[in-house]
Prior knowledge:
The protein is mainly α. It has helices at 2-15, 53-71. The radius of gyration is 18 Å and the shape is elongated.
Amino acid sequence: MAAALARERAREAKRRVRCGAKTRKGHPCKVLSLPGKRRCKFHGGLSTGPKTPEGIERIREAQRRRWACSRDVGKC
């Protein structure tokens, strides 16, 4: 039983990739991502997103500004 559990954990670890988010120093994060995710728990892998209507609208507005900025380079 313990051997089967160890094999399953090893398989799960292989499916996990390095986070890849940028650290404060600009280097890629070396922590393994969460299973089924692309980021570690420190860089948003545990995030479930905003739940309240105010939070959802805040994110929506931030994304609008972000994409407007990327379309019109120099107006940021």
